[in-house]
């Protein structure tokens, strides 16, 4: 049960981010300052975790090897050192997270947080589309059914049927969908980038790559003009903690024990958490019809994973003949 709760808590952490960003905007902070403090916090915490993980593994190896091996033990014997080519690959794989954060957080200036998170969740079908194009393979029937459910749920959850799309910001919607595309690329690239590397170091190098890109796009002047010591530091710590640190750690703990399929289902809790917080904290109006749409989107996210689990169980169930 603790592994299920671990993944659930990690996904809920992601759902908190949009509310924190909107509150930071309300205090007058800009996009580069918000994302910059988040990534700097995530950078520091990720490398602290990576170095601690290496230190702990080294101590265990020394204890298991006996006192005769203590002197000869080294971190490289505990972890396979990444080459600079692998490090650069991981840094490149981490750059889509920056693009996702920038366009997603910018969309919050034009559309409600409850709508922004729904648009971000379109990465589910966008990922399927990208894979189908890259592999030149037509999606199966369950995928088409899932896309149909997601499309219908999105229309309801976004309020398009009640308000009409003309009343919503076209730029905000475009930014939200761009965030979904960028996140889809991150999901695809991150899984293929040095899968043999230790998760803690993979995460740390990806955050490093994202931070370098962000510093190029938005030079971190807030580090030198004293702005970092204002409320911006609090927002940055919260965003870095709940966005760049806690979810990867909790997922690393829980996913290996419950499997990727169940993790995908539990990860969808990010959506209702974000919508609920936007309603309670930001006082955004979310109608009953929109909540119904959220439920439909969650069903659409969970459907293909449930179908895979059922197919595996049917294959593993022995068939007895009389």
Automatic annotation (TrEMBL):
Key word Transmembrane helix present: yes
InterPro entries: EamA_dom, EmrE-like
Domain EamA: 171-303
Name of this chain's protein: DMT family transporter
Subcellular location: Endomembrane system
Membrane topology classification: Multi-pass membrane protein
A Pfam family annotated for this UniProt entry: EamA
Keywords: Membrane, Transmembrane, Transmembrane helix
Family in the record: Belongs to the EamA transporter family.
Any one Gene Ontology cellular component term annotated for this protein: membrane
TM region(s), chain numbering: 7-28, 34-52, 111-130, 142-161, 173-191, 203-222, 228-251, 288-307
Source organism of this protein record: Paenibacillus amylolyticus
Chief location of this protein within or outside the cell: membrane
Record SUPFAM superfamilies: Multidrug resistance efflux transporter EmrE
